[in-house]
Amino acid sequence: MSAEQPTFDEPSADPCLPRGVVVTGAAAGLGLGIVDVLVETGHAVVGLDRDPEVVDVLSARGEGHHAVVGDATDESVLTEACERAAELGNGLLAVVLNAGVTSPGPSVDYPLEEWDRVLDVNLRGAFIGARVARPFLGASGSVVMLSSIVARQGFAARASYCASKAGVEGLVRSLAMEWGPDGIRVNAIAPGTIETEMQRQMIAAGRLSQGAALQRIPMARIGKPHDIGNAVEFLISRRSAYITGVVLPVDGGWAAGGLPSTVA
Q1: How many Cα atoms occupy the beta-carbon half-sphere of 74 within 13 Å?
Q2: Catalytic residue among 136, 161, 179, 254
Q3: DSSP per-residue codes, 123-186
Q4: Is 161 labeled as catalytic in the residue annotation?
Q5: Is 37 within 8 Å of 30 (Cβ atoms)?
Q6: What are 193-234's pLDDT values in tens digits?
Q7: pLDDT band at 261 (very low <50, low <70, confident <90, very high)
Q8: Closest CA to 146 of 135, 132, 161, 159
């Protein structure tokens, strides 16, 4: 290999120091599960959320972590989060673009304002977050976006959410091709049904049946936020150093489809 060709395995300036990671939508749900796993595995985490509760959440995780209160689609807020993570850690290792919203409803009379809001947060926010983080990421840096199993399967009355997550997957592939030569990896995780407050609200509103979901899951259990956190930690680690442009389903097997087992 010539001297001009990058190897993308450069170590941290000090391997004993943590690396900084930004997590958007960090105050609750999947974001909180991701934060907890990253804290447990020794990363310096900056959690970003519109909910001021994120301050207490990060404070409770001990020294070396920080909260930023603000909108995950605001470039100045994202810049602040990336700067803080780079300062807390030994540079910025990764940005995890988890912030998202859903707003189910029949398409024929679905408010266009809601369509714009869902696409703005879920897709535009992911693009802005990746673009803002890019200058802070050195070789071996990583971007992880949150997609969903709905990106590739039809879910009735969820057109805006399905479209936004399908867009995220296209964005992941494009950025992986564009930034790969510089050693920056871009991947996504596609959760299935995960036990969060949002899921409980959907069940209470009659928008989701836990029993119907369980019938589609070969592992016969609803996922936990830490299942997503573990996948994120893998995708930002050196263990996945040759993985980019992929969407990893974390769904208990839902996306595998087919027929359930009939073996006694």
Answers
A1: 12
A2: 161
A3: IIHHHHHHHHHGGGEEEEEEEEEE--GGGTS--TT-HHHHHHHHHHHHHHHHHHHHHGGGT-EE
A4: yes
A5: no
A6: 999 877 777 677 776 778 888 888 999 999 999 999 999 999
A7: low
A8: 161
